[in-house]
Amino acid sequence: MKYNQNNHKEITEEVVMKDLRYLQLLSRSFPTIAAASTEIINLEAILNLPKGTEHFLADLHGEYEAVQHVLRNASGNIKRKVDEIYGNELNKEQQKELCTLIYYPEQKLKLVKEEINPDTLEDWFFTTINRLVMVCRTVSSKYSRSKVSKALPADFSYIIQELLHENAVEPNKQAYVDVIVRTIISTGRAEDFITAISMVIQRLVIDHLHILGDVFDRGPSPDKIMDILCNYHNFDIQWGNHDILWMGATCGNDCCIANVVRLALRYANQSVLEDGYGISLLPLATFAMEAYANDECTKFMPINNEGDPFTEKTLRMLAQMHKAISIIQFKLEAQIINRRPDFEMQDRLLLHRINFDKGTIVIDNKEYVLNDTSFPTIDPKNPYKLTADEQEIVQKLHNSFVSSEKLNRHTLCLFRNGCVYTVMNSNLLYHASIPLNEDGTLKEVSIEGNTYKGEALFKKVGSLLREAYFNNSDNPHHSFALDYAWYLWCGKDSPVFDKNKMATFEAYFIDDKEAQKEVKGHYYTLRDREDICDMILDEFGVTGPHRHIINGHVPVRILKGEQPIRANGKMMVIDGGFSKAYQPKTGIAGYTLVYHSRGFQLVQHEPYTSIEQAVREGHDIKSTTQIVEMSSRRMLVKDTDKGTEIKTQIADLKKLLYAYHTGVINAE
User: Fold this and answer.
1) Edge-to-edge order in the sheet of strand 421-424
2) Local structure of residue 156 (DSSP, 8 states)
3) So what's the pLDDT on residue 39?
4) Phi and psi dihedrals of 238, rounded to 5?
5) Taking 50 as the threshold, does the pLDDT of residue 543 lie above it?
6) Cα(557)–Cα(585) distance, integer angstroms
């Protein structure tokens, strides 16, 4: 092969010698001129493919059934693809049947076999497999063969590749394709094949999934969502305050543990702890029923999700447990507040402000009447001291959390796939806020005597959380990192909280709404200004003609006229209320922001019914799509961050070719 140096004028021997050690390592993967050249050709081709579709979800809050359906139907994208392909061939009912099969292949196949005439089943298999292959061919067309191949299950990889890349319309290929499909059916593999190719379609429609925080709390099954995410082909997560609370609990922060248990009991989701993560609440239940035996615990009745089969006796027990862990929480939090005066949270020490004789409390120089004056475990002379029984419960819960194998596995998944923020393809992703001063400048936050702001603050927060989990507990700095995990949950300068206080005590014991009020940081009003968004984007080094901030945390109240797109399109707030607890306020049931090669679309979801209805009746989540921003030119891989990486790889391979051709490195 003759080497034309004019093709690589920018490469010099000096450049090659500077990178020689790296190029020698690279030569192990591409040991010949042909191998290096072929890889350059492949990478150059990939650069000119359309960019993969990114999906953004926020504030999932344990709503497993709705979340898994949104992922299975790709926020309505599969339905749109089926309509594009078969809009003139299949009626709406037939399209719905095909979509349901793609979403839930195993369940739908079982139903089909019950309803269809056995004599026509093979014909149904034949027609259905061909339709699924067409859908799969369409959704895979924007990817390289190599990438599609990696997405295929081993059992059917070769067969699916043959079906995807052979056109049955051509007369010479019609019989070939038909024989493949007929053989799949005759060998009894039709159901397995349909399941496999349906899962491939689901996987290819979403190239990259972004979760903008708060997988945990409120909903019944965050553990099942984490199972999906930890096995997902390509995702990242920006930790939310509820995620960090659970991460802190796994690290062994007792305040975080108490808060996690309290929230589970508040929403009657104790099964998440007991069945999901193997954390026993029996010691707490035994203690609570004895200590609060004469207490109705009215204000601690759980928010009982519709349909939960709890008896009055069970609800009362949950309320007693709820109150018991709340009092334990207030006592535990006082220990950190007193140990860390630099957290500046002394105003959250409230138990010593109670007048137990009058049944009142003084907060900010104002006296409030308590709606509950039963405090059987609080010693007025030493209100923050845990009783011996409470201390034993704390220790047992601590041991259960830190030793839960599944919880640790999920926490490791959060660390491996996430951080407090991410920058990707000119988008800055984070869960909640950037602490700001009133004038819109970045607020300096003090941590261990040093000040941090903006990106430096986010990096410090991520570092502390990793230190809390991964560092040895004997390390003196580990103790601070562990305490800071709790501060991130409820501290006023926490970028995942950013309020003046978390008024948990007031919400339970004081009926006055003013006392319960939590004042948001300046970010939440300033973020609607385009100049503020530009300042934040500059701080994080986000460039590009179309750059955005994408976050969640605060539900968008559509019923009150709030809009998710703000600051002239620079800010996108996508907490639309996956959590059923928020849906009466938002008026919807979640958002998906979709970023494909043509631009941004916001998909607004209606409440989800159930898997059973989805399979048996073909009920899909009703979604409406709003065009946010469309590009005049289709975005290609070369326009993305991945494209930048590929260009770097191509440049390195060209240096390797130069080294081969000039004899600096010997090719095989």
Assistant:
1) 421-424, 427-430, 548-551, 571-573, 565-566
2) G
3) 93
4) -105, 115
5) yes
6) 6
Q: Which residues pair with 151 in a beta bridge?
A: none
Q: Which residues have CB under 8 Å from 2's CB, separation 6+?
A: none
Whether the Cβ atoms of residue 469 and residue 413 lie closer than 8 Å to each other: no
What are the DSSP calls for 590-612, one per residue?
Answer: -EEEEEETTEEEEEEEPPP--HH
Phi, psi of 642 (to 5 degrees): -60, -40
Measure Cα distances from 666 to 1, 6, 7, 293, 597 in Å.
15, 21, 21, 83, 41
- Please say if the pLDDT value at position 79 is more than 70: yes
Q: What is the mean pLDDT of residues 399-419?
A: 97
Note whether 214 and 61 are within 8 A (CB). yes
Q: What is the pLDDT of residue 668?
A: 82
Of 235, 217, 225, 191, residue with least CA distance to 69 = 225
Instruction: Note the pLDDT of residue 583.
Output: 79
Alpha-helical segments (H) within 292-429: 312-339, 388-403, 405-417
Q: Are 594 and 626 in contact (CB under 8 A)?
A: no
Confidence bin at 168 (pLDDT 50/70/90): low
The residue among 579 and 501 whose pLDDT is bigger is 501
Least-confidence region, from 148-157, 239-248, 536-545:
148-157
Asked whether residue 266 carries a pLDDT value surpassing 50, the answer given is yes
Give the C-alpha distances (Å, rounded to integers) separating 459 from 415, 452, 464.
13, 9, 9
Q: Give me the percent of the chain exceeding a pLDDT of 90.
A: 74
Cα–Cα distance for residue pair 68/107, rounded to 1 Å: 15
Q: Which residue has the tokens 């073909």?
A: 618
Residue 1 — very low, low, confident or very high, per pLDDT cuts 50/70/90?
very low
Closest residue by Cα to residue 579 from 266, 145, 203 = 266
Q: Which two tokens stand for residue 644?
A: 């930048």
Which amino acid is residue 239, in one-letter code? W
In angstroms, the first-to-last Cα distance of the chain is 14
**Strand 571-573 relative to strand 548-551, pairing:** parallel
- List of residues 6+ apart from 420 with CB closer than 8 A: 238, 239, 430, 431, 458, 459, 461, 462, 495, 496
- Token look-up 């928010």 returns 303
How many C-alpha atoms does 649 have within 13 Å on its Cβ side? 20
Residue pair 243/211 in contact (Cβ under 8 Å)? The answer is: no
Cβ contact 540:455 at 8 Å:
yes
Distance CA 302, CA 305 (A): 9
The single-letter code of the amino acid at 513 is K
Q: What is the mean pLDDT of the chain?
A: 91
**140/119 Cα distance (integer angstroms):** 33
What single letter denotes the amino acid at residue 365?
Answer: N
Q: Among candidates 661, 642, 668, 483, which has minimal Cα distance to 48?
A: 642
What the block records as the tokens of 365 is 């120089």
| Cβ density class 559-589: b for 16+ within 10 Å, e for less | eeeeebbbbeebbbbbbbbbbbbbbeebbbb
Is the pLDDT at 625 greater than 80, yes or no? no
Nearest to 517 by CA among 503, 529, 528: 503
Pairing of strands 623-630, 427-430: unpaired
Cα separation, 653 vs 476, whole angstroms: 47
Residue 3 pLDDT > 60: no
Number of Cβ atoms within 10 Å of the Cβ of 330: 20
What pairing do the DSSP bridges indicate for beta strands 571-573 and 427-430?
unpaired
